[in-house]
Design a protein that fits this description.
Fungal-specific transcription factor domain-containing protein, single chain, transcription, about 5% strand, DNA-binding transcription factor activity, RNA polymerase II-specific, CD2-Gal4, nucleus, 4 domains
């Protein structure tokens, strides 16, 4: 935009770039359905002395300067037990006066000058006039889902990052879509089990296409050799970093039989080198050697993918190890899950594992003891990744426990090595938590259980009670090394215990979402249920428990420290963070649309949940600058506020 082309009134009020393609309206006005006008006169502002101004000074009373630092004060994990719904930072943020006179799309979306950046990000994802204007559908009758020539569709699963019971409240158009530019939500069934699809333009998956593209034979001759990208002496150090950061959570490699950078399988070495790039600063040599010219993780991933595909005809244990490491590798774009490629790779991994007999228990086989332990560990890692990715993507599991004998690690399976008992503790506790997750997915989210539980709150509570008891017992019995109290302020080494606590919170939220489900399916019998004392008491208790859990989960996020940021975070952690804001969103939306179980005014409860959601967004934003994977959850919820609460949900 030139100086002569001034911004429209709406863009100037938001301090955003006014992007006009040819003629008004600009992109921002199109997205918000605002008139693109140029009526307000321009006022030259005097240059201010550079200083921090409280966000509240714009929309509300100015606070004393002593209150400002409270926004960035964090609470230690040790002071914020996950069963305690209150947290210091939550109390501090409650004291702020969020001005309700400002429309929702403006409220606490960005602080300290980040608003223009947020608008640019959202425009890149949600600008334009909707998918219908890009890919018109001329078919008569019901609009097609499967015949779009340039759009792809993915199911929004019940456990994934986009909760169908939240999406059902969106204001869908006549084609049953809520449209953006590169994304749209298409609802195909709005019954007790709602079904929606995420429609997207192909360019959102361009990165995955480039990485997973298999070169033609002529291209292979020009591809660089792995040893030309990573020298063997550097590769040796990267393998040690893998043991230190990744293997302690997922014991894929045998400490006594590490791959040789000179002669090891290309797919395994490239996968290790790729996933360890974020941790090179923790090596005394690599922190300088690779500071200016680090190998590209994408290039290494592509080499591993190509070599792994070449090995599919004759898979080996090393092939499974390489595939597991690629599954644990997070996409370079923190705003994407990369679910389609990762889910296909998981299916391929399970297939290779079954071919090699990893679904069997080799304990009594006449093999060397080291091979037996390796097989048992790999069998469990395949099982665990299948469960956590199924949760993350909202898909049915590839593996049934009826046909997979190693569903939990034995303490003797894990080699302690030089890293101490922490390796043993983390993997063993994650193993037990994964078993609980598998039970939750089977008992509360399988297709057959949904057909029975979706409207039966008594049966849902009966199924959920033992799962919640198992989860509470798991948390209570955590070893001191992984408990909240074991994280001193001055800890200097990366601390991965926070990822374990986040996983625990996510499983608990899954149980609570299932418990809330029957109460969200009461339209046909709402009058009868309002007079049912048992129903009202159950709804009241579950909503209180869910609200307390949401506050506790936000407290966990507020307690994150630099030592947590530097640890390895599995890719499904993105969905774990998204589950927290989804639960807050669900509680806020349903507070106005259900019979009130308490004498409390539904509007008052709605306001409380909205304030909790605002606090959570502020806390997430503070930590997203240090931990990239939080940005995915933040984008999911910020998009609703940026577009406008009323436009998305139909009420202000």
């Amino acid at each position: 935009m030139s100086k002569a082309q001034r911004a429209c009134d709406f863009c100037r009020s938001r301090k955003s770039a006014c992007q006009i393609d040819t003629a008004p309206p600009c992109r921002l006005c199109r997205v918000h359905a605002q008139p693109c006008e140029f009526t307000n006169r321009m006022v030259r502002k005097r240059r201010r002395i550079s200083q921090y101004t409280s966000p509240q000074s714009v929309n509300g009373p100015r606070h004393e300067s002593s209150d400002s630092p409270s926004l960035v004060q964090r609470q230690d994990l040790a002071e914020s037990p996950v069963h305690d719904a209150s947290s210091n930072i939550g109390d501090q943020l409650l004291a702020f006066n969020f001005d309700r006179r400002v429309e929702d799309s403006h409220t606490s979306v960005m602080h300290r000058g980040d608003r223009p950046t947020m608008d640019e990000l959202m425009l890149s994802m949600y600008d334009g006039q909707g998918l219908a204007h890009i890919e018109p559908n001329f078919a008569l009758g019901q609009p097609s889902l499967d015949n779009h020539p340039s759009l792809t569709s993915q199911l929004c699963g019940l456990t994934g990052d986009m909760d169908p019971y939240v999406l059902r409240h969106y204001q869908f158009d006549a084609k049953s879509e809520f449209t953006f530019s590169k994304l749209a939500i298409r609802t195909v069934q709005d019954t007790e089990v709602p079904v929606q699809f995420l429609l997207s333009k192909p360019d959102l998956s361009n990165e995955s296409k480039v990485i997973t593209k298999l070169e033609a034979p002529g291209d292979l001759e020009q591809s660089p050799d792995l040893s030309q990208i990573v020298a063997p002496e550097i590769g040796q150090r990267l393998i040690q970093l893998f043991l230190r950061f990744v293997n302690r959570q997922f014991p894929i490699l045998s400490v006594g039989k590490l791959p040789d950078p000179l002669v090891g399988p290309t797919h395994l070495l490239a996968a290790i080198y790729s996933i360890t790039q974020p941790f090179t600063t923790f090596d005394e040599y690599l922190c300088i050697e690779l500071v200016y010219s680090p190998p590209s993780p994408q290039t290494l991933f592509r080499i591993a993918w190509r070599s792994l595909n070449d090995a599919l005809a004759e898979p080996t244990i090393q092939s499974v190890q390489a595939a597991l490491i690629l599954l644990l590798h997070s996409p370079s774009n923190p705003l994407l899950l990369d679910s389609t490629v990762r889910w296909a790779l998981l299916g391929m991994t399970v297939s290779m594992a079954q071919t090699l007999g990893l679904h069997l228990d080799p304990t009594l086989w006449n093999l060397p003891s080291g091979e037996i332990r390796t097989r048992r560990r790999l069998s469990w890692v395949v099982f665990a990744i299948d469960k956590w990715l199924a949760f993350s993507f909202g898909r049915p599991c590839h593996i049934s426990r009826n046909d997979w004998l190693i569903a939990q690690l034995d303490p003797s399976d894990v080699e302690i090595g030089s890293l101490g008992d922490h390796v043993h503790s983390y993997a063993h506790e994650l193993s037990k938590l994964t078993t609980i997750l598998d039970n939750v997915l089977t008992s509360l989210y399988s297709l057959r259980s949904l057909s029975v539980l979706s409207k039966d709150f008594r049966l849902t509570m009966s199924n959920a009670r033992p799962l919640m008891q198992d989860l509470t017992m798991w948390y209570t019995n955590l070893p001191p090394l992984l408990s909240n109290e074991s994280n001193p302020e001055g800890r200097e080494s990366p601390d991965d215990s926070a990822s374990l606590h986040l996983a625990y919170q996510s499983v608990k939220i899954l149980i609570l979402r299932a418990l809330l489900r029957p109460f969200n399916n009461t339209d046909d019998h709402s009058t009868e249920l309002e007079n049912n004392e048992e129903w009202r008491c159950a709804l009241s208790q579950i909503r209180k428990t869910a609200s307390a859990e949401a506050d506790a989960a936000v407290g966990l996020v507020s307690s994150l420290r630099p030592s947590h940021y530097q640890a390895f975070w599995a890719p499904w952690s993105k969905t774990c963070f998204a589950c927290i804001v989804n639960l807050l969103f669900l509680l806020a939306v349903t507070a106005r649309q259900q019979p009130s179980p308490d004498p409390v005014n539904p509007i008052d409860e709605y306001e409380q949940r909205r304030e909790a959601l605002d606090r959570a967004r502020t806390i997430f934003r503070l930590h997203a600058k240090s931990l990239d994977i939080i940005r995915f959850a933040l984008l999911r919820i910020d998009a609703v506020f940026w577009i406008g609460w009323e436009r998305v949900l139909g009420f202000s």
